[in-house]
Structure formats: structure tokens, C-alpha cells
């Protein structure tokens, strides 16, 4: 395997220089420090077991600091967005359980999500999915509408989730081979 600056070098589909070996996690070169990111685990599992070619978009990777209360960041900071777009907007919602901040470009494209609090994982996941699907936020009503959507939690248990995907992947692989 090829190593560079403390990490394993992978291609767009998380394959190492040994094409039958895939890498995932914090030791992958060029990957943001987002801890165990479940979507990355799911995609690399499907790529390895089924031969699919799903890429990872690290701009939507949640970086979670497990403090009390937890801190979550996705994408760019407010300062980074203002450097590239002088018309950036910041949307905030203060809740009893925490604070959620959404940073958008002038046209409403979501550039960053930041949150702190005990129950912010659901709204952050809804905003992260909106960023992935290129949903634009150009007015306060749209921001609050996105926050109300129910999404799965960011803080899943990895062993259960990993086992579930491996099981599904093996079953799908067996069906394809028949």
C-alpha cells in the first residue's frame, strides 16, 4: 500500500494501491478528521462487496467533538465562506437544547453547518441531507422548515450498523451472483 503524510493513499472509491483492499477511517490520506463516519463505512462496504463505484463527498462529512455538550461541524466555517463569497448569510436558531448555525452563500447554497447541544444531531442531519441534495436556503422560513424534518441520528452504534450493512451487502451480492 502507498502511504503519504501519515495516511493510506486511496482513489475516489477508497481503494488502496492494492485494488482488492479498501481503506476507511482516520488513517486515509486527505480525509477530514470526522471520526467514524457511517456513510463512509457503508459506501466502502458496498464498493468492496458489490463492486459498485460510490464516491465520498467529504464536504458533507460531520466532524463531531464528543464534549458535553457535543460540537458538530459540517463544511466550511463562517470566515471561510466570507473569503470566497462576500454575500454570505448566517442563519441561527437557539433552542433549549443547543444552538444551530447555518452558513449559506449569497445564492442560498448551504456552505457550512455548526451546532452545539445535546439534541442537535437530528436537525444537523436534516441540514446535511439538504446540503447533499443541493437545497437552497434563501429565507428564514426555509431554514426553519429544514430544521423540523426528522432524520436519523449521527450518533449510531458502529458495531450494530456495520454488521447490518455487511449482512445486507452479502445478501445483495449472493442475489447478483445467482
Descriptors:
178 residues; alpha+beta; Enolase-like, domain 1; 2 domains; 5-stranded antiparallel β-sheet; two-stranded antiparallel sheet; 5 helices; 34% helix; elongated
Describe this structure in words.
With 178 residues, this protein is of the alpha+beta class. The chain starts with a strand and ends with a helix. The protein has five helices and seven strands, in the order ββαββαβββααα. A five-stranded antiparallel beta sheet has the order 3-4-7-6-5, with helices on one face. Strands 1-2 form a two-stranded antiparallel sheet.
Provide the fold topology.
Elements: E1 3-4, E2 7-8, H1 38-50, E3 63-65, E4 71-75, H2 78-84, E5 89-95, E6 98-104, E7 110-117, H3 121-132, H4 140-148, H5 158-177
Antiparallel strand pairs: 1-2, 3-4, 4-7, 5-6, 6-7
Helix pairs in contact: 1-5
Oligomeric state of the chains present here: single chain
Give the helix proportion (percent range).
25-40%
- The secondary structure category is alpha+beta
Largest sheet: 5 strands, antiparallel
For this structure, the CATH topology of the largest domain is Enolase-like, domain 1
Sheet with the most strands: spatial strand order: 3-4-7-6-5
Instruction: Please report which band the strand proportion falls in: under 5%, 5-15%, 15-25%, 25-35%, 35-45% or over 45%.
Output: 15-25%
Assigned CATH architecture of the largest domain: 2-Layer Sandwich
CATH homologous superfamily (4th level) name of the largest domain = FAD/NAD-linked reductase, C-terminal dimerisation domain
Task: Provide the succession of SSEs.
Answer: EEHEEHEEEHHH
Unreliable stretches covering 5 or more consecutive residues: 152-163
CATH top level label of the largest domain? Alpha Beta
